[in-house]
Design goal:
mainly beta
């Protein structure tokens, strides 16, 4: 069992930055691909980013490419999402998730490839 806890969300003005963290339990963190998803009000949850178990491969949705960056620290069992140049349309609840099967080198993977999910953290970007 892997437990995920996101933090770092908040209210920021357009053009600002936030850094989300996702702390995990369990000794097998380094074997999981980690993903970030978000769900805006009234919309379906969508893929944002994924990072391979080693951190060497990342993949981003077109909507965040060049602005968001994911990294991980396998000693601290934590994955990060650095969000720069934030836009009002980035407003959403952000979730981290863990997968044994997702492969960022082949693009995004569907939600059902991720077995474990955090409870989410709210990000609000004001215009």
């Amino acid at each position: 069992q892997v437990q995920l806890v996101e933090s770092g969300g908040g209210l920021v003005q357009a053009g600002g930055s936030l850094r989300l963290s996702c702390a995990t339990s369990g000794r097998t963190f380094s074997t999981y691909t980690m993903g970030w998803f978000r769900q805006a009000p009234g919309k379906e949850r969508e893929f944002v980013a994924a990072i391979s178990w080693s951190g060497g491969i990342t993949y981003y949705a077109d909507s965040v490419k060049g602005r968001f960056s994911s990294s991980r620290d396998n000693v601290k069992n934590t994955v990060y999402l650095q969000m720069n140049s934030l836009k009002p349309e980035d407003t959403a609840i952000y979730y981290c998730a863990a997968s044994r099967y997702a492969s960022p080198g082949h693009g995004s993977s569907p939600e059902n490839a991720y077995a474990y999910w955090g409870q989410g953290t709210q990000v609000t970007v004001s215009s």
